[in-house]
Amino acid sequence: MANYVSEAVIRRLPGYYRHLRELEAEGVTQISSKDLGERMRQTPSQIRQDINCFGGFGRQGYGYSVSELKQEIGHVLGLDREHTMIIVGAGSIGSAVAHYPTFIREGFRTLALFDTDPARIGTSVNGVRVHSMEELPLFLEEHAVDIAVLAVPGDAAREVFDELARCGVTAVWNFAPVDLHAEERGITVVNVHLADSLQTLSYKIAHR
Amino acid sequence: MANYVSEAVIRRLPGYYRHLRELEAEGVTQISSKDLGERMRQTPSQIRQDINCFGGFGRQGYGYSVSELKQEIGHVLGLDREHTMIIVGAGSIGSAVAHYPTFIREGFRTLALFDTDPARIGTSVNGVRVHSMEELPLFLEEHAVDIAVLAVPGDAAREVFDELARCGVTAVWNFAPVDLHAEERGITVVNVHLADSLQTLSYKIAHR
DNA sequence: TAGATTGTTAATCGATTAACAATC
DNA sequence: TAGATTGTTAATCGATTAACAATC
Known about the structure:
The structure is a homodimer.
Chain A: H1 7-25, E1 30-31, H2 33-40, H3 44-51, E2 58-59, E3 63-65, H4 66-76, E4 83-88, H5 92-99, H6 101-105, E5 108-115, E6 124-125, E7 128-132, H7 136-142, E8 147-150, H8 154-166, E9 171-174, E10 188-191, H9 194-206
Parallel strand pairs in A: 4-5, 4-8, 5-7, 8-9, 9-10
Antiparallel strand pairs in A: 1-3, 2-3, 6-7
Helix pairs in contact in A: 1-4, 2-3
Chain A binds a DNA duplex through helix 3 and strand 2.
């Protein structure tokens, strides 16, 4: 378990989890790497290699138990514990995250939103209160927050990110169109970059 | 130009574009692969290799003109033309896309939203009208739509996707938590998978 | 010109795929 | 047992990095 897991494998793990959840919902209890590979458009080899980064969850001649493998990968992803979140920026992206049913179902619980707009402060989004940015430091002192969702406009992102870092936030899910890095400060960041994703679609349209 | 460009390169192109836009805003007119590499945390080699997939835009001893390179990469990404979009699903994700300022600035214009919820039909989101799903086929006949944004719940996604395919949509930006593939039907799909992104963050938190 | 930096080829590194003995 | 399929090692493939001649 202490062995190195490549970024490529990490990115595929949620896909396994999602397909195993689907299989479970379909009532499939057992599956081989061959069949799972067909479903996910991957080679059986890759699936076995990926899974074996975390242990031998299969049985020769049989395959994998869907529910067992789902649970194991869920554990590897940290989905068997609850995560608390705050959302900074109560605009349309922040609001979308607050409403997203999958996050809630998987145990990602939003404690509060924060915004600078007086028209938003004091309102609530999906039952969660919007606070002023001034309340952020005290809130973070008083609550154990696992993840800060950064959903402010690009030109404010670095400043707000620094503020979050000062307040001791250790994990940031960033929707602002800037590259944030802070491994050297011990902060884990995942950048979403929605515009980048749309632009790759634009590229594919232009070159087909 | 007809030569093969790997998926890895395509995924990096929007990052180049974004950083060049930032540099331009800062008033920087010229940059070397060394300096750009430092800024983007990539090797100069990789930057030169990537850029040279599309032509020699640099000058020896000098580097790259920021505005020229930005324009060239923008062209490669297809950002020098307007794209028309429809958004299927007027929930919080669909609404966030309709509001996202970067898309509007880069020439992605939303013509209409579609939804099944009678409470939403007839309203407007950021000035764009929400139609019923029944109006979709006629709308697509009467309007040239480049991209359909799929922002419906996961359990409806495949059905709606098939409907889009039947109506002749050729590019889909998918936010539903299912893997859609339709190269064989000539449809270009980019899957966003927000929950997957959050789960990789969860993984990194669990393993640090 | 001398110095800097590209474009491009070659070397390295890592990720994917294939193969197969182990075993259910 | 015979057949199927894993876990794992070896081979291949592709992507990244290094090197350097060309040249601005």
